[in-house]
């Protein structure tokens, strides 16, 4: 039996499934299992190359019986099995999730373990064993993080250190244009003053006026100071010190043009770091961002010692340039802080209101996240779900009354995928998507193009593993997303650069054309500083092989910096989503409009489920990726339709005041403080400093406020409302309450419980 990609799926007499992938196995699970009726268990024997494994999955209770009769039950050895268990979506497979959780814990895939246990708790909310396992997991994660954190040198984290100040292509022209605007719109003059010979008397007058101006400045009399400096400059227009002083006086009067005019007239060689910085600030207010960047770049170059302001100001210009156009229609702006990009409300946003919507620039398969059951196929290009009636109704589709099945088939949209003509593997929802995909990236990375591209797809299908010389499956890629996403970014850059070259009558793109092609990805600022390429040698070599020949003699060099940078861009900016408008919704809409027999339609209702299964993919979202984390998040992110395609919608969880930062959450905020922090440190490399983390405690044996330790064997009483902070005295509790516990304790976040 062959899958659409040509993968050999052999069904043997003993129902042994060889050479499988998760989706194949899922689709074929009913064909390939032995059912143990007596013990209500199904056996899955999974063979990959020479490795054979047996998993017994209990289908119904009683659990004890299954365990005792099959010592190998739940012999879950690796993530394939964990993922497989998760994909079964059974109603009563708590044991499967326990085993999956334990296996994932052993494999140090803590997030997977956590989601396995959570799935188990969904079935039996207070399952004792799972709660114990979750506690154990919590301890393991904290220990792991503490060990790793101790091994790293504690660094003063500052996002600007990772940001480049390289000019963008086209900036030279923009620079000239902005100088013109400066002269024409803001009437900034470029003047030189002849050197006047002046005698002692004039010199004395200049000195007196300067001193008087200086005294006025001290007394905060800016207007008077400005007048004094003007008198001095009339006598000595080339005195750059006085000009700088007058700029300060004008700045204090908020006279932008006057301030900048004086700074502009100071010759470049005479401008201090401070002058460049102030000039940049004025240029930002003129909205002349390329010029402003130039001035802040100069200020950065002249910085000695610790002064991050010019660097931060520079990046502020960058985010206005990059994100300004994306936020014109929403009540937000993107700014730059010491922890990178951040989104702020530009007006009050009522609870429930949409804050913004976003669509992905690049999307690809979800990887390594067992809780997302990606069994539903979707368009490889636009992520539209290709959910079939069989996948939606599952076994009930064949058992429902035939007239109902006919009704479904009549109104269910066509979800038959359209395949790439070359590889006959990659699926699309339409010819349009197939053509667009081909023209933008697929022609470079189509698995039919070379053995290297075929290997990349295969690797992605096998969740990052491939056989080594001995046939043992080894992990070649340990990213949490499919390596195809990176391949797609590079392939898109290549095709864009090639077409820019073609437009100017060339074949090989110029440096500028490459830079233009990379420009859409500038929005994805990445802060990774730990080199990943050492650990991913194999896949890096594979990418190098693929992109060394992009056709027409063009190659794209994947340097170490390029590899690391793009890897972190993806890591820092990906978000899982799925199109909320599925074939199921279209079906319901069509059925609703149709004039069908009411009785028949009503009979169908009992087969409808609350929510259709999702076809999750992950995408790089330019705006959404700027959302920082808080354990007291004020927005919620959900799947949404954006310009007719799948994307994300960000809604206010409560009223957000103008100027407040917009925070999402990266983790399950029901987790206790210590675990939340460990999780964030492990996955995102930062220690959370949100208000909740500041006012909640970790243990009852330490006073959350003053840090005092409880006597041996004793515990301090906890906050009666939230039980998330413990105090040694009423005094400590009162102080903590005033300092912020009150604000946090009254929120719904504090009412959540974990496990
Ligand atoms: C998806 S990005 C969010 C936007 C980010 N500031 C940026 O510009 O890339 C995630 C990264 O932002 C930073 N971050 C997010 N929330 C943070 C917080 N509460 N404290 C410190 N850093 C945070 C961390 O570096 C994290 O890895």
UniProtKB/TrEMBL annotation:
SMART domains attached to this UniProt entry: SET (SM00317), TPR (SM00028)
Record's CDD domains?
SET_SMYD
Which Pfam families does the record cross-reference, listed alphabetically? SET (PF00856), zf-MYND (PF01753)
Q: Which InterPro entries match?
A: SET_dom, SET_dom_sf, TPR-like_helical_dom_sf, TPR_rpt, Znf_MYND
Keyword Nucleotide-binding part of the UniProt annotation: no
> Which top-level group of life is the source organism from?
Eukaryota
Key words, A-Z: Metal-binding, Methyltransferase, S-adenosyl-L-methionine, TPR repeat, Transferase, Zinc, Zinc-finger
Task: Report the SUPFAM superfamilies cross-referenced here.
Answer: HIT/MYND zinc finger-like, SET domain, TPR-like
Which GO-annotated molecular functions does the record name?
histone H4K20 methyltransferase activity; zinc ion binding
Repeat (TPR) positions are: 94-127
Q: GO biological process annotations for this chain's record?
A: methylation; negative regulation of gene expression, epigenetic
MYND-type domain residues? 379-446, 703-745
Q: Where is the SET domain?
A: 315-667
> Which protein, by its recorded name, is this?
SET and MYND domain-containing protein 5
Give the originating organism. Magallana gigas (Pacific oyster)
